Amino acid sequence: MTREKVRAVRRAFRRLALSVMGVVLLTTGITVAAAPAHAAGSDLCAEVGYNAGFRGDGLVTAIAVALAESSCDPSATNEYNNTPASRDRGLWQINDHYHPEVDDACAYDAQCNANAAFEISTGGTNWNQWSTYNAGAHWRHMDEAQAAVDRLGHHEPGPGPLAYPAESGRVVSARSADGRLEVFAAGTGGVHHAWQTTVNGGWSEWESVGGPAGAQLAIGANKDGRLELFAINGNVFEHRYQLAASGNWSGWENFGGGGKDIAVGANGDGRLEVFASGPSGVFHRYQSAPNSGWSQWEGSGGGPANSTVEMEKSSDGRLEVFAINGDVFEHLFQSAVSGGWSAWENFGGGGHDLTVDHNQDGRLEVFASGSAGVYHRYQTGPTTWSGWEGTGGPANSQLTSERSPDGRVEVFAINGSVAQHLWQSGVNAPYSQWDAFGTGGSEVTAAANADGRIEVFGTNPDGVFHRWQTGQSTWSAWAWLNSTAGPGIS
Q1: CA distance linking residue 194 with residue 180, whole number of Å
Q2: pTM score, two decimals?
Q3: Most C-beta atoms within 10 A of its C-beta, which of 35, 111, 308, 317?
């Protein structure tokens, strides 16, 4: 895209985001400091970003985001005709309505703006409140950002943005590197694919792409931004991948034998890791290097046989795996970021389905359905958990979850009779009661648009439908993605 197109897309994102969404920031100790003169704007962003606390990949990403937002101009201002009126200010374009604690004196001071960006982004691990990052506009600035870090001469290791796993199931969705959502659904005739034709916009028609019939799907992003899709049924396991970020896709390639379910997530170093369940328990396979080849299949030390598997990432970047069947619920976790794995641990009784998400503060939230409804368990610390708590909700339902733009977790449940959802009443807070979300169906998944709005995909034997947030607490009606319903899923 040209610079003018990137700026136009960014302005469109902000108009929508600022009109319907709020974000929450807990800041401490932001101080104003004089900004030095620099020959290149990226050098200024590198220096103040480093002084704010960004390190390693997080520093490179922070500079790239600032370049996409303001061209690293500390005096940059963007004003829009929103109600209430608001301005984006300074290097990282801190909004004055949603972040009034960052006054103009701070916002237009390079170091203070960097300090605020460090707090908002949770130390460079979460850039989801920046529309340029969600839309992938920062990628074109990564080389310039890396060159600025090289000139700065500081290469201490540090966390990059955390890549949280997407929900797996019969229908899956994730954003391409350019911010457009892509969705895949597995019917009896194989896998079907549709995609947004513009960021936050409308959808293509469905296309049939072959692959295993009636499969369970999982989707993840390689370190270079290329999406990779995995599909398993009782007989075969195959995968396909984008040939370039946001580009065309490869054909299907063999990935192993058949099984029950799969999940995929990215290690802290960017290597994808895949878990698959079958009659003998849970097995895993992982990339030998980012964007590269794969290990052989290895046992995980057990795990529930023929289980439903989901994956999430802890606040420190370690992957955690959760697996449930009709009798048992177990989980295991990495002992270190990108490292080895624990033994399986008991996590509760058996059930029908599960979903896992994370709070704004990084604590994991787990929901599981069964014959008595939906139950809930959550981290009380990095390694400690609450007991199970009942929430009501549809019995034996399919579950999915996603985070609203302000960081609140929303949970969606569907069974053959009803669809319902509940949501956190505030960031890191307790949940509402279940509310109606439609009639029954067979599968559900949720994903976030580049502007943060949740998009929910539901299936039934007639096809695939979707609903999307029109505001922070308002939703569209159910509709087909385009003029056809896509594959029916029983």
Answers
A1: 11
A2: 0.85
A3: 308
Q: Which stretch of DSSP H or E encloses residue 479?
A: strand 479-480
Query: How far apart (Å, rounded) are the C-alpha atoms in residues 273 and 266?
Result: 6
Query: What DSSP line would sit under 410-434, residue for residue?
Result: EEEEE-SSEEEEEEBSSTT--B---
Taking the CB of residue 297, how many other CB atoms lie within 10 A of it? Answer: 15
Residue with tokens 């370690």: 318
Measured between alpha carbons, how far is 121 from 53 in angstroms, rounded to an integer? 11
Write out pLDDT tens, residues 151-173.
Answer: 999 888 888 889 999 999 999 99
Query: What whole-number percentage of the chain has pLDDT above 70?
Result: 91
Crossing angle for the helix pair 56-70 and 41-52, to the nearest 10 degrees: 130
Local structure of residue 215 (DSSP, 8 states)? -
Strands (E), 81-170: 86-89, 94-95
Question: 450, 134 in Cβ contact below 8 A?
Answer: yes
- Please identify which residue in the block is written with the tokens 């499969």: 215
Q: Give the separation between CA 460 and CA 154, rounded to whole angstroms.
A: 54
Question: Sheet holding 253-257: strands in order across?
Answer: 216-221, 227-232, 236-241, 253-257
Other Cβ atoms closer than 10 A to 151: 14
**CA-closest candidate to residue 126, choices 407, 344, 342, 483:** 407
How many whole angstroms separate alpha carbon 166 and alpha carbon 283?
A: 19
Task: Give the C-alpha distances (Å, rounded to integers) separating 154 from 37, 46, 51, 63, 125.
Answer: 19, 10, 11, 14, 19
Choose among 388, 394, 423: nearest CA to 409.
423
84 prior amide bond cis, ω within 30: yes
Handedness of CA 161, 313, 270, 179 (dihedral sign): negative
Q: How far apart are CA 15 and CA 17, in angstroms?
A: 6
Whether the per-residue pLDDT at 441 is higher than 90: the answer is yes
Distance CA 68, CA 45 (A): 12
